[in-house]
Write a structure and sequence with these properties.
The protein is of the alpha+beta class and about 140 residues long. It contains 6 helices and 5 strands, in the order ααββααβααββ. The protein has a 3-stranded antiparallel beta sheet. A two-stranded antiparallel ribbon has the order 1-2. The longest helix is centred in the C-terminal third of the chain and has 25 residues.
Length: about 140
C-alpha cells in the first residue's frame, strides 16, 4: 500500500502545503478570538448579533453568566468532521479543543485583564465544546 507523502510531514510543513493566506487568517481568528463588552457581558465577537443577543438577554433575564455560557462556545463538531467511533480521531478533536481553550483563555486574559475567567473544554454527548464565562 502506498502512503501519501503528505502523511509523512510534520505539522508545520503539512499546514504550509495545505493552507493559503485566507485559511491561515481564519485559523488565527479561531485561536485568537475577540470579545465585546455588551450590557455587562463579555461576548465572543463572532457570536454577537444585536437582535440575537437581545433575545438571549431577555430570555435569560439579563443573567450575564448564562448569556456568556450560551454564546461563548465553540462546538468542535461544527468546526471539524470526525469519524464517530474512531478513538484516534476522537482524541485528536479533544486535543484540538484543549488547544483552542488554552488560546481563548490567553486572549481573554490579555485583552481583559480586569476580569478572571472560568471555562475550558466541556465534554458533551456530541463531543467537546470550548466555553468561557467571566467569574462573578
Amino acid at each position: 500500500m502506498n502512503k501519501n507523502p503528505i502523511d509523512e510531514l510534520d505539522y508545520f510543513d503539512r499546514a504550509a502545503l495545505r493552507l493559503n493566506l485566507h485559511d491561515w487568517l481564519s485559523v488565527a481568528q479561531v485561536f485568537h478570538p475577540r470579545f465585546l463588552e455588551v450590557s455587562g457581558c463579555l461576548i465572543w465577537e463572532r457570536a454577537y448579533e444585536e437582535r440575537n443577543f437581545g433575545e438571549w438577554y431577555q430570555a435569560l433575564n439579563g443573567n450575564a453568566t448564562a448569556i456568556e455560557s450560551t454564546l461563548n462556545q465553540v462546538r468542535l463538531w461544527q468546526l471539524v468532521d470526525i469519524n464517530e467511533g474512531n478513538p484516534a480521531e476522537e482524541e485528536m478533536v479533544t486535543e484540538l479543543a484543549r488547544e483552542i481553550a488554552f488560546f481563548w483563555r490567553a486572549a481573554l486574559e490579555y485583552a481583559h485583564p480586569q476580569y478572571s475567567f472560568d471555562g475550558g473544554v466541556v465534554e458533551t454527548e456530541d463531543g467537546p465544546v470550548v466555553r468561557f464565562i467571566v467569574q462573578r
